[in-house]
C-alpha cells in the first residue's frame, strides 16, 4: 500500500517545494502528515486540490509514518530524526546533521543510488528503517553536472566557484534581498536583519562559519560530501577539490563555475555529448549567440543547465575542461533530490 508520508518543516521554502514536487510527480501517498513548529501549527497548506492543516511537531508525531522528509534545520533533525526511525520511518533528511555520519547514505540519485541498497534502507519488509541524507544544494548541482564526465574519465582535480542564491539562506533572506533592492533604488538601504551589510547590488563571501584553515563550512561541505558521494574513502583516491562560495543577489538558483583536470583525455565535444545524454542536466551552450545558462533559466526547473564547456587552455590538450552550471537551489538542490531518493524507495 502507498506509504504514510510526513513532511517535517512543511511551512518552509523547501517544505512547500516538497508538496509541489510530490504532487507533480504523482508520488504514491496513502496518508500525508504535515509537521511544523508550534508557531506554524494550524496553518493550512495546499496539496493539489486538498487543504491540509499543519500539526505541531513532537517526539510522538511519527506513529505509523513510513517516510519522513525533513527540512527544518539540523537541530530538529538531530533531535527527532532518530525518533522517527525508532517509530519505523525511513527519514530523508535535507539538513547537514547526518551527511557525514558513517553508515548514513548521502545520495544524489543520478550519481550514487546504490548507496541506499548498500545500507539496506527501504520500505520493504526485509529493509530497515534509517536515515538517508540529502547533500548540500551546491554539492548536488555540481555533481549532477560533472558526474557524467567523471564516470567516463576520472576527474582528479576540481576547482569550483559558486554564485549562490538568497534562497539558500532561507525565505527571510529572499524577502530581505527584495526589500533592500527597493530601498537601494530609492537611495538608502536601511533593512539589514539577515546579513550585517547590503546584499542588493552586492555580493559577498558565503555566510557560513569561517574555519581556521580559511575555508567556510559551505566550501568544506562541497569537498567532503563529494568524496563521500563518489565513494572516495582512501586519501589517495580522493579527488582534489577546492571551492570558493559566494552569495549573490539572485533569488533561488545557484550558479557554479567548474574547472576540471582529468586522469586521461576528455575533449569538449566528448563532454558535450556525455552531458547531453545524462539524466538531470540539459545543455545551454550556444556560442554563436553567446547564450549560456542563467539562474532564471534554471529556477523552478528539475534539470541543471550546463554551458561554457571548453578546453582549459592552461592545461595540455584533453586534460583540462571548464564549464558553467545553474540549478534551482530549492528544487534540485533540496526538495526534488529528496523526492527522487524517496522514489527509489517505492520502486
Ligand atoms: C546555502 N547551501 O546556499 C546552503 C543552503 N542551506 O547557503
Automatic annotation (TrEMBL):
Which catalytic reaction applies to this protein? L-aspartate 4-semialdehyde + phosphate + NADP(+) = 4-phospho-L-aspartate + NADPH + H(+)
Enzyme class, one word?
A: oxidoreductase
Q: What is its pathway?
A: Amino-acid biosynthesis; L-threonine biosynthesis; L-threonine from L-aspartate: step 2/5; Amino-acid biosynthesis; L-methionine biosynthesis via de novo pathway; L-homoserine from L-aspartate: step 2/3; Amino-acid biosynthesis; L-lysine biosynthesis via DAP pathway; (S)-tetrahydrodipicolinate from L-aspartate: step 2/4
Stated EC number for the protein is 1.2.1.11
Keywords for the protein's UniProt record, in alphabetical order: Amino-acid biosynthesis, Diaminopimelate biosynthesis, Lysine biosynthesis, Methionine biosynthesis, NADP, Oxidoreductase, Threonine biosynthesis
- Binding residues for NADP(+), per the UniProt record? 11-14, 39-40, 167-168, 329
Q: Which residues form the Semialdehyde dehydrogenase NAD-binding domain?
A: 4-119
* Binding residues for substrate: 164, 247
What positions does the entry give for phosphate binding?
Answer: 99
Position of the signal peptide: none
Q: Report the Pfam families cross-referenced here.
A: Semialdhyde_dh, Semialdhyde_dhC
Known SMART domains for this protein?
Semialdhyde_dh
Active-site residues (renumbered): 137, 254
Which GO annotations describe the biological process of this protein?
'de novo' L-methionine biosynthetic process; diaminopimelate biosynthetic process; isoleucine biosynthetic process; lysine biosynthetic process via diaminopimelate; threonine biosynthetic process
The UniProt entry, under InterPro entries, shows: Asp_semialdehyde_DH, Asp_semialdehyde_DH_beta, NAD(P)-bd_dom_sf, Semialdehyde_DH_NAD-bd, Semialdhyde_DH_dimer_dom
> GO MF annotations for this entry?
aspartate-semialdehyde dehydrogenase activity; NAD binding; NADP binding; protein dimerization activity
| Family stated for the protein in its record | Belongs to the aspartate-semialdehyde dehydrogenase family.
| Assembly and interaction partners | Homodimer.
* The protein's role, per its UniProt record: Catalyzes the NADPH-dependent formation of L-aspartate-semialdehyde (L-ASA) by the reductive dephosphorylation of L-aspartyl-4-phosphate.
Q: What is this protein called?
A: Aspartate-semialdehyde dehydrogenase
Q: Give the organism the record lists.
A: Algisphaera agarilytica
Whichever gene encodes this chain, its name is asd
Amino acid at each position: 500500500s502507498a506509504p504514510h508520508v510526513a513532511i517535517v518543516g512543511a511551512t518552509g521554502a523547501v517544505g512547500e517545494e516538497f508538496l509541489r514536487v510530490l504532487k507533480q510527480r504523482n508520488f504514491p501517498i496513502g496518508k500525508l502528515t504535515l509537521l511544523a513548529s508550534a508557531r506554524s501549527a494550524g496553518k493550512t497548506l495546499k496539496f493539489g486540490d486538498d487543504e491540509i492543516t499543519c500539526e505541531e511537531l513532537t517526539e510522538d508525531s511519527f506513529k505509523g509514518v513510513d517516510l519522513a522528509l525533513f527540512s527544518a534545520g539540523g537541530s530538529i533533525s538531530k533531535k527527532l530524526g532518530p525518533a522517527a526511525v525508532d517509530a519505523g520511518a525511513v527519514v530523508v533528511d535535507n539538513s547537514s546533521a547526518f551527511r557525514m555520519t558513517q553508515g548514513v547514505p548521502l545520495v544524489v540519485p543520478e550519481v550514487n543510488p546504490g548507496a541506499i541498497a548498500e545500507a539496506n534502507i527501504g520500505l520493504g519488509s526485509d529493509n530497515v528503517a534509517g536515515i538517508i541524507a540529502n547533500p548540500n544544494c551546491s554539492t548536488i548541482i555540481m555533481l549532477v553536472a560533472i558526474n557524467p564526465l567523471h564516470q567516463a574519465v576520472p576527474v582528479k582535480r576540481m576547482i569550483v566557484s559558486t554564485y549562490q542564491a538568497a534562497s539558500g539562506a532561507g525565505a527571510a533572506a529572499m524577502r530581505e534581498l527584495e526589500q533592500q533592492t527597493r530601498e537601494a533604488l530609492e537611495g538608502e538601504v536601511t533593512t539589514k536583519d539577515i546579513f550585517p551589510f547590503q546584499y542588493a547590488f552586492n555580493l559577498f563571501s558565503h555566510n557560513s562559519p569561517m574555519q581556521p584553515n580559511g575555508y567556510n563550512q559551505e566550501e568544506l561541505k562541497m569537498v567532503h560530501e563529494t568524496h563521500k558521494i563518489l565513494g572516495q574513502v582512501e586519501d589517495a583516491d580522493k579527488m582534489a577539490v577546492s571551492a570558493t562560495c559566494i552569495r549573490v543577489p539572485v533569488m533561488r538558483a545557484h550558479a557554479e563555475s567548474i574547472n576540471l583536470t582529468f586522469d586521461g583525455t576528455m575533449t569538449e565535444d566528448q563532454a558535450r555529448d556525455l552531458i547531453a545524454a545524462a539524466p538531470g542536466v540539459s545543455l545551454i551552450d550556444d556560442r554563436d549567440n553567446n547564450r549560456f545558462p542563467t539562474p532564471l533559466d534554471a529556477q523552478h526547473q528539475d534539470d541543471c543547465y550546463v554551458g561554457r564547456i571548453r578546453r582549459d587552455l592552461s592545461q595540455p590538450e584533453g586534460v583540462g575542461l571548464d564549464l558553467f552550471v545553474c540549478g534551482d537551489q530549492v528544487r534540485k538542490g533540496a526538495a526534488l533530490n529528496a523526492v527522487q531518493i524517496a522514489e527509489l524507495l517505492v520502486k
